[in-house]
Design brief:
Blueprint: H1 2-17, H2 23-27, H3 36-83, H4 109-121, H5 125-138, H6 145-158, H7 162-175, H8 182-195, H9 199-212, H10 217-221
Helix pairs in contact: 1-3, 3-4, 4-5, 5-6, 6-7, 6-8, 7-8, 8-9
Length: 226
């Protein structure tokens, strides 16, 4: 469906730009030298239609990126939910043998991560930021530290804190260069840098993304440098 859409868009734009008119309008088109105001207005309308088509194409690219994020969130939640249960059916971190009844216990890393992730997925970004920061403070060496930094960057971005978002995405890419979030972290870092008007640095990050992860979905979505 996406391929068909992108194939149709250039055709529609071409039709708009070439000014294809119905036969009735062609028959009544003004001769050369006549109807100059009407011709100028027609060209202006064609240019506006072309701009609208471009905006539609940009919106499709944005929706594709958001859909990818939603799919990643669902996969991550399923994986983490399965890790919450031990082979004997007991929830991880819910109190093992030898722990006195009623004694305080430290929250398991998966539990903290899941709570922060659920807050982000529900749009409660301030709560998610607090949760991810707590996770990173308590378990900086956890396998999901890179993931936590990535989602922390997404939280900051949604709050228009682009400098903090760029810092989180940069750390996510550096913390787990072989992790699954590294390519996406570099792509999102480039976007944050563009929002900060650091365009040269953003282009360097995109070149690094395509060089280091050429087969990743993030690299294939990123436009080539001019």
């Amino acid at each position: 469906m996406r391929t068909v859409t992108f194939l149709l868009l250039p055709i529609l734009i071409l039709l708009v730009l070439t000014g294809c008119l119905p036969p009735s309008q062609l028959a009544s088109a003004p001769a050369a030298g006549d109807g100059q105001p009407e011709l100028a207005q027609l060209r202006q309308e064609q240019a506006e239609l072309a701009r609208q088509m471009q905006r539609l194409q940009d919106n499709l690219l944005l929706l594709e990126g958001r859909l990818h994020d939603q799919q990643q969130m669902l996969l991550e939640l399923r994986l983490l939910s399965s890790q919450m249960v031990t082979p004997d059916g007991q929830k991880a971190g819910s109190g093992a043998a030898g722990t006195p009844l009623g004694a305080p216990r430290a929250a398991a890393p998966t539990e903290i991560y899941l709570q922060a992730f659920a807050s982000y997925a529900s749009g409660r970004c301030p709560e998610a930021i607090t949760g991810f920061q707590e996770f990173l403070r308590l378990y900086p060496g956890n396998d999901y530290a890179g993931h936590a930094l990535y989602w922390l960057g997404e939280c900051y971005d949604s709050q228009q804190q682009h400098a903090a978002a760029a810092d989180a995405f940069r750390q996510a890419a550096e913390r787990s260069p072989q992790g699954g979030k590294a390519p996406e972290a570099l792509a999102r870092l480039a976007v944050s840098l563009q929002k900060l008007n650091h365009r040269t640095e953003a282009e360097e990050v995109l070149r690094l993304l395509r060089q280091r992860y050429p087969e990743s979905a993030a690299a294939k979505r990123s436009p080539p440098s001019n």
